[in-house]
Amino acid sequence: MGMSEPRISRRVLGGWVAALGAGLTGLPLAAQTPGASPATTAEWSRVDARGITVSLPQRPTRVVAQTFLAQSLHDFGYEVVGHFGVDNSVGEFQSTGDLDLAEIPFLGIFGSYDIEQFLALETDLILDFSWGAGEEAAFWYLDEITLDQVADIAPVFGISMAGTSINDNIAFVRDLAAALGADVETPEILADIEAYAEAANALTAATETNPGIKVLALQGSAEQVFLANPAWHSDLIYFGELGVTFTPFEVNEDGEPFWGVYSTEQLGIFPTDLYMPIGDLSSIGVWNTLPAVQAGQVTEWRFSTRVSYRGFAINLNELATAIANASIVTE
User: Fold this and answer.
1) Residues ≥6 apart with Cβ < 8 Å to 210
2) Where are the strands (E) in 124-165, listed by range?
3) What is the pLDDT of residues 69-89, one digit of tens each?
4) Is residue 303 one of the residues assigned to a domain?
5) Does the N terminus or the C terminus of the chain have fewer Cβ atoms within 10 A?
6) Is there a domain that residue 185 lies in?
7) Rounded distance between C-alpha atoms, residue 212 and residue 182, angstroms
């Protein structure tokens, strides 16, 4: 999988409010949190996840976002005017929730965007996932050539997907939605926050009542498997904060922190009780011989593309159920 099919690294991409629930002492705003929102007619200035200040003469009203961010903002009551990166079929990530993508102009897939449509939409802000700091930071769905093109149309704002907990990233997106004019204190959103807190508590409870379950998130092909670094992917960071134990392995991908890259034959050397794959790995021969797989201890890695309380509560509940029902099959 190369840059023509984005995943979550340069090599394989192409991871707040008051406390709710006994197990959460708070959902803190991270260092990447945007500043206070000025009035609509005043200058709009925010610091993005890269640490870069994005300023406009007034609050943007014509926002275009990467598809999964479009859904994330929708969950917080903000609607973008266009999306890019993933077409209406969505595919393997299944992360668009209840947002009807057919109702929003689609500007193209990775590496093949309709730049004229960015102009026609009168875009005044572009949102994409990012990782890293400053001008050297990378974007998930904007390659360097496209980034140069769209940056001439409107400023590009980065939202962290790696190296920070998704708990903080969700707070960041909620605060951004508020800064864009959304009401993020509706009864529906507050109910989403409560359900998210309950799901987080359920995951912690599962790890405590069924301790010792080793979890491994991954994706793979016939030749290689990419083991997800739990210290770098945003969702895995939060799972770890909630008590999940991950299978140890060496991250050996040329200094890139997303993955440990191994041949498929090596997969069996990492004792694991519960696998979280992206997609179906049954075509990989060694996969079907693994004790956890034979025991049916496999749950889909939905990844961290829907950055909202409503969206990520699903991930938390699914992993809580999988851990609660798993048995230790490693020696």
Assistant:
1) 323, 324, 326
2) 125-131, 138-139, 156-160
3) 999 999 999 999 999 988 766
4) yes
5) C
6) no
7) 42
Map tokens 């400023």 to a residue: 155
Rounded Cα distance between 95 and 198, Å, is 21
Q: How confident is the model at residue 237 (pLDDT cuts 50, 70, 90)?
A: very high
Please report whether residue 331 resides in a domain. no
pLDDT digits (tens, 9 = 90+) for 141-162: 998 888 999 999 999 999 999 9
Count of all residues that appear for the chain in the document: 331
Q: How far is 66 from 102, CA to CA, in rounded Å?
A: 15
Per-residue pLDDT tens over the stretch 32-69: 434 334 445 689 999 999 999 999 999 999 999 999 99
Q: What's the gap between Cα 29 and its chain centre?
A: 17
Q: 225: helix, coil or strand?
A: strand
206-211 contacts, C-beta under 8 A, 24 or more apart: 206/319, 206/320, 206/321, 206/323, 206/324, 207/242, 207/243, 207/244, 207/245, 207/323, 208/243, 209/324, 210/323, 210/324, 210/326, 211/245
**Is 112 exposed, middle or buried, given 0-12, 13-18 or 19+ CB atoms closer than 10 A?**
exposed
In 3-state terms, what secondary structure has residue 44?
A: strand
> Range of 307's domain?
211-325
- State whether the Cα torsion 210-213-215-221 is positive or negative: negative
Count of domains forming the chain? 1
Extract the tokens encoding 86.
């993933």
Q: What is the CATH number of the domain that holds 293?
A: 3.40.50.1980
* Residue 238 counted as domain residue: yes
